[in-house]
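Risk mitigation, structural track. In case the binding assays with adenosine monophosphate fail to produce interpretable data, a predicted complex structure has been prepared as a fallback.
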Amino acid sequence: MLTRFAQAQQRPHSVAILDAQGAHTYESLWNKSSQIAHQLLGGRSDLEQERIAFMVSPGLNYVATLWGIWKAGGIAVPLCLSYPLPSLAYVIEDTQAAALVLEPTYLDLLQDYAQEKGIPFHPVEDLQVGPVTAPISEIDMNRGALILYTSGTTSLPKGVLSTHANLEAQIATLITAWHWTSSDHTLCLLPLHHVHGLANVVSCALSAGATLQFLHSFQADTVFSIFLEGQVNVFMAVPTIYFKLISEFDSYSESKKAELSACMKAFRFMVSGSAALPVSVMEKWKQVSGHTLLERYGMTEIGMAISNPYQGERRAGYIGTPLPGVQVRLVDEQDLEVAPGLPGEIQIQGPGVFDKYWDKAEATAKAFTESGWFKTGDIAVVEAGYYRILGRDSIDIIKSGGYKISALEIEEVLRSHELVKDCAVVGIPNEEWGELVAAVLVPETELDLPALKNWLKERLPTYKSPKVYQIATDLPRNAMGKVVKNELKSIFSSTN
Ligand code: MCA
Ligand code: AMP
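Fallback model:
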């Protein structure tokens, strides 16, 4: 049995999930997921790794669907809840999803599309009927479990296939390193189509027998209200969320600040990751909550790899040391290990490293060295035993609000606009968002920027309010090149 499921057997009557509908026990989660598995199987004994895409709000139904797919022998494909139809269709078609599980809220968006494509779709509620003892065969650890999409240095996102063994390793490492127990109670407000929310928060909490409280989306005042209820003791978020929580905290009266600080002081620990944590945010959060944030480093393809210690010094500006079971090395451009103290690309090996990019053999081959190390594209240095990230190898990868965004994907869309002659997209540093997406356009004529932004929003899944700059002169012919982009980046960073 997957260790992800073990607690459902061991503590059936404990509260697994708190969501907008109330409290749900591990038994209820187990039973609902068995019903879903049974219905998805429809009389078969195994889905044989069929991909099942699902669009369900965070809460009991979400986890029951995920577990149900696994119990039926399928590969789970969580869809982003805010994507427009073309981006959802890309994922559904790229994974050749055999069926969709949808919450009623999302039926309108996908029903016609599914009918047209002949893809069976199930309202999630309809699946929760029938026997709870689904005919589940033992799950082979080397089977595919999950496909999450990640942007990279190509214009189209790639599906990252992780096996059950990969997920078990990713979860086990964090449970040990961060001392998860069944007494923990965590609040999940992160999107669930990424590792941070799905593996680090949801799967670790449920594998430890802890209580997992869901918030549909992030709102700083709601987060603090929940904290004040006094149950949450573990919290994980991206740096942008800590920045926004600090701004909210600053708007409170002195007495409310004191009450909140006292409440947060009692937490077991708090984690930041997915993007570099500015030292200023770390320091301010320490004043606000009494906690030194534990910063860690990971990636969709590998789970978590490097972490500051649970006990011991959490060093500001550093990501820490390799997690148990993860091998890390820093290499130069020839894939040779650098001398101590020199910067190099982080490369990773270990049981948590993904299986392959879905249906992309060439991209998979390119992502590994001949000796099997995964190339992260992140550049780091080791100083006094701790890793420090210096940046990314590719200027075309932007991290904004914790999301990885491909500059090339945005450029491709922009270039299809009839009034855009040329463009270059770069990330410019910003304390709140990490980086802001900035699009530098050479227009055919003066552009109506609000109209252009709306146009972009309809077409771009990763739309993040890009800043748009128009420039009169043509971009140098190699506008995509690193040198030119670096120049644009520094020009617009200083005018920002
Ligand atoms: C939103 N806005 C932005 C951005 N995002 N502006 C600039 N840059 C951005 N990136 C604007 C919107 O257009 C809107 O503006 C206003 O902010 C509010 O938008 P909304 O979407 O409601 O924002 P939010 O709810 O405040 O979202 C911020 C967020 C969210 C909560 C930080 O971005 C988030 O959940 N990030 C987490 C992503 C994550 O989990 N990444 C993990 C992947 P206006 O009001 O003017 O329209 S990485 C991973 O998994 C690896 C393995 C790892 O290491 O963890
Ligand atoms: P994703 O592909 O969305 O999983 O994003 C993974 C990327 O996020 C990594 O390759 C890093 O560039 C970045 N990242 C994650 N954690 C950190 C961190 N603590 N500091 C700096 N960058 C980080």
